[in-house]
Amino acid sequence: MAAFGELLAASLARVKAVAQDNIVQGRLIGRTDRERLLNKGWLTPIIRGWYTLGHPEGQGETTQWYASYWHFVRGYLAERFGTNYCLSPESSLDFWLDQNNVPRQLMVVSASGGANRVDFPHKTSLLSWVGEVPQEREPKQGIQVMPLANALCRVSPTFFNHDPTSAEIALRLVEPAAVARYVLDGGRSTVAGRMTGAYHFLGDEVAADIIETGFKIKGERIRKTNPFMIEKPLLGYKTVRLRSPYAARIEALWQQMREPIIAAFPSPPGLPRDSCQYLAQVEERYRFDAYHSLSIEGYQVNYDLIEQIRTGAWNPDESATDHDQRNAMAAKGYHGAFKAVCKSILAIFEKTSSGAVIERDLSKWYQALFEPSVQVALIGASDLAGFRNHQVFIRGAAHVPPPKEALVDAMDAFYSCLKNETEASVRAVLGHFIFVFIHPYMDGNGRIGRFVMNAMLASGGYRWTVIRSDRLGRDQYMAALDIASSQHDISAFVEFIVEEMAVDWESAD
Q1: Which residue, 25, 44, 59, sits at the end of a domain?
Q2: In the chain, how many domains are there?
Q3: Structural element, H or E, at residue 116
Q4: 472 found inside a domain
Q5: Which residue, of 41, 51, 308, 479, has the greatest Cβ tally within 10 A?
Q6: Which residues, including other chains, have CB under 8 Å from residue 461's CB and lie 6 or more apart?
Q7: CA-CA distance, 382 to 52, in Å (whole number)?
Q8: DSSP run (H or E) holding 105
Q9: pLDDT along the chain (509 residues), means of 10
């Protein structure tokens, strides 16, 4: 009789063969394989007849679901509607803007099937209804969406009020001629007035004139209305076509969040007169500062893992020796990175631009953080070259970091914001938050983010601040970061930082 490991491996191999991006339709697998893998946690139900195939350690975590979400939606919509459907204008805009967050509710219009709401894991859902499916639609990552111009023109006017950041980015991304063609061909004068008013508000007179001139040629007048309710554009009054929605969102978030930070933060003490004394105090706090950040990766089944299970080589628990070695290398790397950060702070005290120091030295901090792991072959040297080359997902978080293709643009925007910011408090809080929001590395993002925060606190003379999991708790810290990422509300995070700054160092001992 075959050993259970061989039976499990055989089931995994058969199911893996019919899975599409680790999404499995129940009708394609046998009952025995399904029950065996469900029992051992390798299959996780999504809805009736659909499963994710993933490592048991990821079962019940948002990470596995968020990693699989769009793969599932693509297959589910194709199975249910073929290509005779389209995402709503709002959901289409989310796709074009690449916000990278899994939506709480995806909205779909289809030619058949009736109105229906389907609940997915982790409080997500899909709402579909029967309606006129737009003829002009296109597949984006295998999902039928409206063209950007069409979606922008078809969203409700309240969209500009409820999500002005996305509306502004969309207007700066879309080709104005495409907007003009859509409103002119359909005789949509009311929409044309809204688009013209929006472009005037952004200071893009050229784009507004394209639409107005087209209607004048037709002999029609349009009534301009500004759909925005905010006082001024987040990206300023300028005529600019964006290349990357990611860079634009980072700049917009920075401008949106800076005033609440300034209001909540104590006044900066200013650069210390005795830099050596400041760094000596930092050194005294070193052992309390080694807060280990989370490592984020989605759990995926591969054939190497199947073979390990078949041969009995797979052990779900790490060996004590390997675990201890990883801990030792992490501690050694943290100390090396800490020393590199102190050197950067010294450069800041010598009145070098703090943002420029971060841009120059951040990769050195990252390399120091993982140098010991390279030396003992826990990771390869090539892993320290540049940014991550895979998608990452943050366990328990609604926010999904930008894809690897967006990292250069996103980090350029991050450095630009740091260098142009005049307030040390903003550089500290948003230096941490935006860096983690981007998540440019496969590992170490939390530790590097807190190093950025403390280097920027030093640039205003604030003391080195330890974010401790034993007082307010890791969950509150991570929840505040996730609220800032997914809801664009920085208040909980800045409050958390200010409270941690106020903790007495002596009592922390």
Answers
A1: 59
A2: 2
A3: strand 116-119
A4: yes
A5: 51
A6: 268, 269, 270, 271, 272, 424
A7: 31
A8: strand 105-110
A9: 76 93 94 93 94 80 85 94 95 84 91 90 94 91 94 95 92 94 91 95 93 91 93 79 85 94 95 93 80 32 48 53 61 86 95 94 94 83 87 78 91 96 97 96 91 97 83 72 90 93 60
